[in-house]
Write a structure and sequence with these properties.
Belongs to the binding-protein-dependent transport system permease family. This is Carbohydrate ABC transporter permease. It is found in: Cell membrane. Helices cover 68% and strands 1% of the residues. It is mainly α. Helix 5 packs antiparallel against helix 11. The protein has two domains: 73 residues, no CATH class; 224 residues, MetI-like (MetI-like fold). The chain contains 15 helices and two strands.
Length: 308
């Protein structure tokens, strides 16, 4: 049927199928060139970063710091940063904060979203208004610091979790998903004697896997990439997360010494190789998680945000 419609179209005019004009060969070529250039602009920097991190010290020195195509492979930079120094410690702290923080954030967000989705319950409108108002007004740095200080959380890993444990946007998305659940299923469960907690754990949560995957990804990436709270609340360098180490030794250009890596300073690779290796370690975990949650991304966001 489609081939018949295409043959029926006069040459020189755009093809139309079901009232939709198909792009011509020139438009397809232009789009292909634009997408190719965009992909190259995204991929080539990563290739250069990875190549520099695995290039031999001699090639990095000769190239002046940045290598695009390494002639040999040397994993000395990775061995150095994983030797038990500040980078290894920061990596474990980031993993701990991301895992614990994401679990706490998902628990708080889902319970609050479920409570706000129960129409007619006492105080739901007032609580929902507070959540929506928090989308418009954020606390300043000084008030946030004073609250964390009064709670005794300075130089504590909880300072990296508690202040950002609940996102109002994610609460609204989860609530919108719970509102869309079929009332017939919930009513039948109530008739069978299910409590509100059983409705939440046995019906709400199992049906909300797509939106929870997306919200969990948002929280996980947020915790993994966060460095500003650590910069404010952490004066003990042994409790720095990986992103603050990345900022200190890569963005600020602070030299990594043998004391920082826990090894002999005389055996250090070039600083550029160490910096690029830290950058790769900080980026790769997020890149590995995205493909597994990509299939839930569109479904979770659409089902959670179409109806409020």
């Amino acid at each position: 049927m489609i081939d018949t419609e295409r043959r029926a179209q006069p040459r020189g005019k755009p093809q139309v199928i079901d009232g939709v004009a198909l792009p011509g060969p020139v438009e397809r070529m232009v789009k292909g060139v634009i997408l190719t250039v965009a992909c190259a602009l995204v991929i080539l920097p990563f290739v250069g970063i990875i190549s520099t991190s695995i290039a031999t010290p001699e090639q990095v020195t000769q190239a002046g710091g940045f290598v695009f195509l390494p002639t040999g492979i040397d994993l000395g930079a990775y061995r150095m940063i994983f030797a038990g120094g500040v980078v290894t410690q920061a990596l474990w702290i980031s993993v701990l904060v991301t895992g614990v923080g994401t679990a706490i954030s998902l628990a708080l967000t889902t319970t609050l979203g479920w409570a706000l989705s129960r129409r007619g319950a006492f105080g739901v409108r007032a609580m929902l208004l507070l959540v929506l108002v928090s989308l418009l007004f954020n606390p300043g740095i000084i008030p946030s610091y004073l609250v964390v200080q009064q709670l005794g959380l300075l130089d504590s890993l909880w300072a990296l979790i508690i202040p950002t444990s609940v996102s109002a946007f994610n609460v609204v998305v989860v609530r919108a998903f719970f509102v869309r659940l079929p009332h017939e299923i919930l009513d039948s469960a109530r008739i069978d004697g299910a409590s509100e907690w059983q409705l939440f754990t046995r019906i709400g949560l199992p049906l909300s896997k797509p939106v929870l995957a997306v919200v969990g990804l948002f929280y996980g990436v947020g915790y993994w990439n966060a460095f500003f709270n650590a910069l404010l609340y952490m004066s003990d360098a042994s409790k720095w997360p990986l992103q603050l180490v990345l900022r200190t030794f890569v963005v600020d250009g602070t030299q990594l010494g043998g004391q920082d890596l826990g090894i002999d300073a005389g055996a250090l690779p070039p600083q550029t190789s160490l910096q690029m290796a830290i950058l790769v370690v900080s980026v790769v975990p997020v890149l590995l998680v995205y493909p597994f949650l990509q299939k839930h991304f569109a479904q979770g966001m659409l089902t959670g945000a179409v109806k409020g």
